[in-house]
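This part of the workshop introduces the protein records we will be handling. A learned vocabulary of local backbone shapes supplies the integers on the structure line. Getting from the letters to the tokens is the skill we practise here. As an example, a complete record with its sequence and its structure tokens follows.
=====
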Amino acid sequence: MKRIVLMGDSITDFGRRRDCPPFRQDRDCMGAGTGYANRLIGEIMYKYPKKYKVINLGIGGNKVTDIYSRVKNDCIDLKPDYLTILIGVNDVWHEYDFARGNDLETYVSVYTKYIEEVKASLPEIKIYIVEPFILESDITRNNDGMIEKVREYAKAARAIAERFSLPFIELQAKFDEMTKISNDPTYWAADGVHPTLQGHKLIADRIMETLEKDLDAD
């Protein structure tokens, strides 16, 4: 079976069990977590029976420097055929809360090194960069400038995708569109960062729209 790795922070993690062996997903070992990764894994395994093994390797609190520190163990050594990456909000948020964020230059340089090392070791891998997003909430509004900064990092993520000719999966515009319909951004992400169930469905659907084009052709 071909392998798909989902890389990211708490938005990807969302309660997955750490003691699950790679690529095991069943009711006794919920390595999928309960967020968008769970929905995405279920959709892939339903639509392509016995063809792909999917593993959620998001870790809550991760920044780009954290996923880079585990690039060998949690990506290269697993030899995935497909890799999705959703990272960036903590690079901004952690500077506000803990003074341990990453400035934009660091975010870009480390993200670039991550992509370069993965592609050098796994030249046939297909990588998808998922857009970091942020919505309005009491928390994000009170951290002055946080919304604008996250959107700057999202632009940087897009530029990295363009540099390496990788698919870029947009989330912010879709969240903004759905927020206009609901007239309540916290309906999609209660704190402006961590999605609700419907927010996770939005993310899963957006990733699947892009990913399935390659899976269908595989």
Remarks:
- The first strand starts at residue 2 and ends at 8.
- The chain has a mean pLDDT of 93.
- The domain at 2-217 is CATH 3.40.50.1110 (Rossmann fold).
